[in-house]
Each structure stands twice: as structure tokens, then as C-alpha cells.
Amino acid sequence: MNRSRLSKVGVSVALAAAVVTAAATAGAGDITMTETNIKRVVTLRDQSKNPFWISRADCLADDVFTFPLYVTNYSDTATVQVWVGDPSTNNCKDTTARTGSAPTCWMVASSTAQSSNLTITVRAQDIVGQHKTVAGSTTGGPGSGTEADCTLASTSSTAPQPVVVNFMFVTNSNAVSGNGYGWPTKYDLAGPLPPTSLTLGQGDTMLKLSWPQATDTDLTGYQFFCDPLPGQEGAANGGQFEAGSSSSALSPGPVPGPEDAAADTDGTGGAGGTGGSGATGGAGGAGGTGGTGTAAGSGGTVSDAADDSDSDSETGTDAQGSECSTTKLFQGTVPDPALLCGSASGQTATEGRVTGLKNLYTYSIAVAAVDGVGNVGTLSPVKCLEPHPVDDFFKLYKEAGGEGGGSFCSVGAVGQGAGMVGFGVMTIAALARIARRRREDS
User: Fold this and answer.
1) In this structure, which of 20, 29, 228, 294 has its CB flanked by the most CB atoms within 10 Å?
2) Would you say residue 20 lies in a domain?
């Protein structure tokens, strides 16, 4: 064979190799994407916090992602398919991961490239649904996710679940060709676990909430829920006051009539303590002699004892527990956002306050934890308590013309007892004036 023929053969081989390489490149297909151009149909929360994660609210709203892809070397023999898998076992390029009796990846979208710019939409419910296409079954695939997939089983972890969304060219023989693109994200369908206990403390038109620190790593704060809401108390709550509670002990009771005044003059009014009304019993003591007044004072002790029976409620560990008079708050359930009445930020927060409340009015309150995508968890134990004016004694003392100060304040009752003492002072003064007028008239 001469030299010219060998040269021609070499050229032919080189051309054939170039054709094969070009054909392989054309059938391979490459996919890239600018992630900052990803769009979402629904914007329900603060997008500065994990804007591309999927929350439960996103899922329930049937949110849709729009992915702007740039594809090269595409052909009619391969389609762009989108498969989702767990990053710890993610190998969606493997045929066995997408087919067979136990696939580990699930398809959420498919499209054919007609140009270099390709837009693909993927439903959030399809991502979280994990409806795999098992051999011999027609279930799974794009559109198979439903609203039911947005709620995790009660035994599921509340931590965010990582996934990888894979964009790949898949041939007619179900093989992956070219260079695909993997986009990692997470879905979080449940809020953090709630505090295991809740304690309430009283204040003037406010209640203080305290709870043990939680351990969930994705927790960002807490929300408070009230029934009724501040400013929406109405009249229905009146039945929540229990006999012998602090609120009933502070009630004024019946207005004394002539017979009561006569009894006071004789000094026998001290027996009023047996009626359970500390205020009325104490008033009888003012009308009688020193000795009978002491007996009447013991009547006030009866009322104090009844008031102390509510002390457990004041610390948030009342016997009612979750049986507070509410039909809207229940431990272990996701709360109605319309009942939100306060919040505390930070993973280490252990206390907060609900303000703007009505004194001597019973409120049912519970706490729920919140995560980084706005999911609100289930409620803590529900506790109930009424705010109390903590300085009623001093207010009433000054309003009555009192000018004492300094060391006098150090012996003044505060908290729950302040209201009772203050009311007793006013009642004693009023009945003393009545008795004095009767003596003058006689």
C-alpha cells in the first residue's frame, strides 16, 4: 500500500471518530440553572428565612416552584426529567433507584427541550409526597401529591427533611445521559415540640408565662394563644369564676340593711364570718366591742382560706389543668392563628407576658413553639388564671385620703391579698360612718 493511500485511510478514520464524538455529545445533554431565578407561586412567610424550603403552609397552599433551566446538546431522543431523592442515599442517575420493586427516588416533573431555555414547574406536594412509581403500579409521578401529604404522622420527626431535586436527561431506554443538575432543599411540615409544662403568674392587666427550655434545634421562638383574646372578653366568661376563688372573695357581697346596722351596734356582727364572706365579717367587728370585733375578724380568715385554695391556679398548676373553661385551646393540637395573643423570640426563651388583659377575668392560655419557616407546633398544657391589680391597697388608701408613707409601705399587702385588704378598709370605713349616723340620729 502506497503512502498516499495510507494517508487517505488515516483521514477517513479521523473523520469517523469525529462524527461519533459529535453524535455522542449531541445525545448527551447538559443542564445548568441560576438558582437565584427560581420563582414560587405562593409567598406566605418571611422570605429572608430559608426562602426555598417548603413549610406546611406552603404545602397546604399547593405552592409551585418554577425552575429556569439552560440546556445544551439536547435531542429528541431524551427528555428532561426531574427526580427527587434523599441526599444520604441520592443516586437517582442509577436506573434501579428510579424503577423496580423498591425505588428510592420519585419523579415530580418531565418535559422535552425545544430550545436552550427550558422552564419546568414542580409542585411542592409532589416533592413532599414521595409517591414512588413501583414496578407494575400506575401510582406515583407528577401530580400524585395531595393535601394529605402536608401532614406528618404523629410519630414523625419534627426536624426539617433534606432532599435533592435532580434535573436529568433520560433516554428512551431509561438511561441517564449528559450532565444533570442537582438542587438541594428541605421540607419542614411540623412545628417544634411544645413546652412540657406552663406556669402562669399574676400581674396588673397582664399574666406572666414561664416554661422549661426546649431542645429542638430548628426552634426560633414561641407564640402565645389566649381564650378569650384581650379586648374580646364579653360576658360568657363570667361562669369561669369558682366558688371560693380569689375573684369571689373580692366581690363586694350584699349591701347591709338596717338590721345589719343594728346588729353591728350590738357588736354581734362578728359571727358573720361563718357565712364565708370575709369582708362582711370584718365589718361586723368594727361595729361591736373589741372582743366581738376579734371574733368577727376570724370570719375574714375563712375568706382568706378560700382564696388560698386558688393558689395552685395562680402558679399554673391548678387542679383544672387542661380542663380550663375553653372550647378553643387543647393540649397537643395545632392552634388557631386567630387566637394569637403574644410571642417571645429566641431558642433559649423561657418566659413572656400577655398584656392588655382585664383584671379579675379568667383567661385560658397555652404556648406553642415556632421554627425557621414559620411552622407553629402543637400546644403546651392549657392553664387558666385571672390578672389581679397588685397595688390596689395603696391606690385605695391614697384615694381615701391616706397620707402615710415610708415604712408604712413595707407592711402593706401586695399581690392577691392587696385587693382584699383594700376593699376591707373601705368597707369598714363606710359601715363605721353608718353606725355613727345612727348614734347621732338616736
Assistant:
1) 29
2) no
